[in-house]
Amino acid sequence: MSSNPNDTKYVAVPGPGMIPERDKDKRPVLEASHLGIDFGGLTAVDEFNIAIGATEIGGLIGPNGAGKTTVFNLLTKVYQPTRGVIMLDGKDTHGMNTTQANQAGIARTFQNIRLFDKLTVEENVKIGLHSSIGYHLPSAVLRLPRYWREEKKAHERALELLDIFDMADMADVRSSSLPYGAQRRLEIVRALATGPKILLLDEPAAGMNPSETEELMNNIRKIRDTFNIAVLLIEHDMNLVMGICENIIVLNFGKIIAKGNPKTIQNDPKVIEAYLGSQDGE
Amino acid sequence: MGNKIKILGKTNKNSLMGFINYGIIILFFVVITIVKQAGALTNALSGQLIPICAYIVMALSLNLVVGISGELSLGHAGFMSVGAFSGVIVSGAMNYGGVTNGAIRLIVAMIVGAILAGIAGVVIGIPVLRLRGDYLAIVTLAFGEIIKNVLNCLYVGVDKAGLHFSVTDEAHMDMSAEGVTLVRGPMGAVGVVKASTFLAGIILILLTLFVIQNLVNSRTGRAIMAIRDNRIAAEATGINVTKYKMIAFVTSAVIAGSAGALYGLNFSTIVPKKFDFNTSILILVFVVLGGIGNLTGSIIAAALLTVLPEIFRPFQDYRMLVYAIVLILVMIATNNERLRAFWKRIGHIFRKKGGELNEQ
After folding, report:
1. pTM, whole model, 2 decimals?
2. Which of A162, A193, A224 is the C-terminal boundary of a domain?
């Protein structure tokens, strides 16, 4: 896969948008059309359309308060949309709750980190592995061989996943005592453990220094390539966004103002205006 | 390699804590038995042995709700009450029917008490555990009171035709003349043929520890704790919140029901008023004093706080005062930064020693 996001060729698909040419034989992992939500009389997001290819890395950017996290909350069914349809891997998510949406293949991280504080790093990952651990309460209480076998498997899998971010040696540390950057990485590992088809990252590079951000970029690519999944990320760090996102959606006041590859977005007058204000504004 | 050692150390630590709890209970049993054989056990204390066991089980089961699942239950005595009365009724009916063996009656009574308390737990849990917030505390508080008042006007008798129930008075039970009244409204269960033994109490505690500890160290336990730590993240990680809260709550109710049966079959009479709000709070105090989420602490707190009032009977008037002071002191002690740092240092020393042991 090309490392320069500007080189990705796009093809139109029936529905709300374009997906990378390499994904054209698989169905888009996530499609949202005419998505919108009102809070009371306030329209927070309106006419949001997106299509994400099976192995695409997409970006969602916009000024503060543009509604980016609201879009994430809509896609993961934390909020039920007022209008529009969300198709996850070809399935309509209408009526699903957050738990069901995750089981259907969408996993996320949070802008304000949400780890299971009192549990260890390994336990946090094992909670992500929850549905892939194959025993039930009776075999756990009676400690049947099945329990030991599945727990051993889960333990090995958890360490394997932690290894992506070189965190296997922190497995026994309480998650709340991890440094900030490691907490963000642990959230990603936990989300990956649920076996998603698409991973939503809400400001993954927040609070990271340039070298950590560089490493994160490589890791996001590595995740996409090894797990063959799609990634959609919200980020303010433009180096990261322009460096890895093949398709970028710019949101302002709840509406999409621009869409395209990094080069198009950088030169789009509407985007420049949204970020810097218009020249004849005053 | 270093990695492996650390992981082994951790598993050891987890199961070690479990074995310590079993050890404490077995030691308790052995010491009490020896003291009893030597004839050094006072009457007052020997009468407290089974209640101590019942309260330890109650504290452990409430800890599952409060400490592990992070919900507040203010009506745990209600489940105990359900277990106690259904246990006493079943045992009474069996006794009437000719089953005089105490052990069999106790086991059946515990099972029936556990099932009925479990059903009560499901009935409460289904609507309440779907909500966010502290509704469980309010509803369980109401449940405790409702159960108390229902039992206050419940009359149960047994004759050749089977069990007879009434909610008005004894005459309305339509019982034949040779029948026996088992529960007499506000007077409670009367003429209970005792069946509980200290050994049965100890076995129940061990069984409770076994269930709770194995539950906590499993995928189910992790899911329950995940919901406690961060509900939104748990949902986003694919955990079915209502289901796992239900598992914790109903398991706790089932255990409380069997503890109730043990408690009920230890006295010749038992009144519904015994299981009021004060008892629920008493059990909560065991959990808070012992440390929320700390099973060993619950055991010790429940045992001490059941025995101490007996020992300090001469100062009975000041009991609640001392209680309040102790609670405040514990809260100060556990929230004091310096004390916390002190405990942490001690923990570090122990962990270092443990680490060295593992290296060898």
Report:
1. 0.89
2. A193
